[in-house]
Amino acid sequence: MPPPPDIAGLRPELEAGLLALGLDPQATVERTPPTEAGEDRLAGALLAYLALLQRWNATYNLTAIRGPREMLVKHLLDSLAMQPHVRGLVSLADLGTGPGLPGLPLALATPGLAVALVESNGKKARFLRECVRQLGLAPRVRVLESRAEAVAEPGAFAAITARALDRLAGILAVGGHLLAPGGRLLAMKGQHPAEEIAELPAGWRVVGSHPLAVPGLAGERHLVEVARA
What does the pLDDT read at residue 58? Predict the structure, then answer.
């Protein structure tokens, strides 16, 4: 099913944003044959995901952002701004992923990355399963309908991420057990979270803090990397 005109019309802005982030809009997406949303190039696959999000959001209120262009900037491009920091990773758990952010855009843009989308809300988990099915991302992308602290896969992931779940200490409290030795929390924040860094529990330390430039977004964004001390 092709994306509706209001989504398809965003392709030039999406492609420009991807190029600004160092991503090739025509890169091949690693996936199994899809059943419906057939797009094997990055820009097209992202638009297919955006069309699914807009359609489901009208009924299920998956995100407070309604306009397709605002979703493009604040959801897709914002998520993909951290993509350079997941290149080379083999596995990522996205905690409290909501409608799949940042995990689904990162999976589409990063060949070889296995992503677990952790979401306890039933309607959001149903949407995520439909995205995985239509975009042909199984088995590389899994949906875990669970609270992060209940995921019984200790040490299974090279990295965990969270876009709007909690403060750094809270994310580690519920998801730190999922990190493999040498694994990192990749936490997306607005302004540099100096207070949150000061609250880190014993045994954890910041190993990197990176300002992110999101095309079309004026506000500050940072990626904070936390690892075991």
Answer: 87
Please identify which residue in the block is written with the tokens 């993909």: 80
CA 62 to mean position of chain CA atoms: 15
Determine what percent of the chain is predicted with pLDDT higher than 90. 86
Cα 125 to Cα 119: distance, rounded to the nearest angstrom: 6
At 38, is the pLDDT very low, low, confident or very high (cuts 50, 70, 90)? low
Q: How many CB atoms lie within 10 A of CB 88?
A: 10
* Amino acid symbol at 221: R
84 prior amide bond cis, ω within 30: no
